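Re: the multi-chain job from yesterday

Posting the exact lines I submitted so nobody has to dig through the queue logs.
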Amino acid sequence: MGGKRLILMGPPGGGKGTQAKRLQDRYGIVQLSTGDMLRAAVKAGTPLGKQAKAVMDAGKLVSDDIMVGLIAERIAAPDAVRGFILDGFPRPVPQAQALDKLLKDKGITLDGVIEVAVPDAKLIERITGRFTCAKCGEGYHDKFKQPKKAGVCDMCGGTEFIRRADDKAETVVARLKAYHDQTAPLLPHYKAQGLLREIDGDREMDVVTSDLESVLGT
Ligand code: AMP
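And the result, structure tokens for all chains:
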């Protein structure tokens, strides 16, 4: 896969965000995470954040108009010129159709869509145990990846950690349902365009990263 205009797909908790961050550093392309954009808006208390919060807390999807608007703006920004990884967008089919049109209008072609596949049974445990450093965003997990020194971030020494409001077990069930009902139908959409590659995400993070790198090339 030559160029680096990608969509990373997969269920919530499957590791898209972690892998997208690594690819961003490795290839000098930008991670465009709609979830991160919405969380930033919620934190800043903007009108968008106020509107999105209840929807996110319920594990449901924010409206297509809002999401397409956000992504259109980010894809056009200077830092996305060298390439981008869409993480968490598109979600339902109309977003994929809007993205097809948006890219066509801008003369941009996608190089690939990679599905990081993880079975449902693993996702709840993966999601409900995760937390991040409030200062640098490094990700941890109660069971799989505790900081080396309890309460201190390995990367930056920060001592404050945060858990996502929507990572509670009840909300995770709704998020998984939204994924299966509304987002999984995109897989055939991209398969028909010859863009889809599947990677087994149910392995050590580093192994998944090297698989991604071998799909993407240098
Ligand atoms: P994520 O960080 O990708 O798991 O997204 C967190 C939450 O933000 C989702 O459960 C949705 O409520 C909302 N969200 C993120 N991206 C989208 C999108 N493309 N379309 C609709 N809602 C989204």
